[in-house]
Amino acid sequence: MLLIIMVSVVPAFLPLIIARTTGVNRYGPAPRTGLSLSEAVQACVNKYAQFQGRASRSEYWWFYLACLIAGIVLEVLAYISGFRFLNILALAWFLPGLASVVRRLHDNNRSGFWILIGFGFGVIPLIYMLTRPTQVDAHDKAKIFE
Fold first, then answer.
1. Residues ≥6 apart with Cβ < 8 Å to 76
2. How far, CA to CA in Å, does 133 sit from each of 25, 73, 80, 93, 121?
3. What are the Cα distances from residue 70, in Å, to 7, 76, 83, 95, 97?
4. Which ranges of 18-56 would DSSP assign to H, the alpha helix?
5. What is the dihedral of CA 66, 70, 72, 74, to 10 degrees?
6. Is residue 44 classed exposed, middle or buried when 0-12, 13-18 and 19+ CB atoms within 10 A define those classes?
7. Of 6 and 43, which is predicted with more confidence?
8. Whole-prediction pTM value?
9. Residues with Cβ < 8 Å from 45, sequence gap 6 or more?
10. What is the pLDDT of residues 71-96, one digit of tens each?
């Protein structure tokens, strides 16, 4: 029982323990910022399965909002018609959603494998990392919680 608790709780504290690398972002040039909703959705669809590069906060969160709105609309349609549209949406947007999370983590100079802490209690630090601003230069601090 203790092992199960440790396996599910320890990942939540990893961002507090492991420092972010300092220096120039190793995942490429800074992404385009200030995107509108349509530009963000178009950028994520164009980079459907591209896990390299970086995604700005606006690109990631506008895409997340568009998926959330589409999910709500399809759920209402499913309630009215009896057909489960949401399953189709989940399959269609799984890969671009995963790629946008990985690119967003790259924008904070973190490996895409940090997405794995989202299982268990690590979802709160993962959301915190996704909301961090772009790492632009070598003078950024190394700790996640400044």
1. none
2. 13, 30, 41, 25, 23
3. 34, 10, 15, 16, 13
4. 37-46
5. 180
6. buried
7. 43
8. 0.76
9. 96
10. 888 888 888 888 776 677 778 888 99
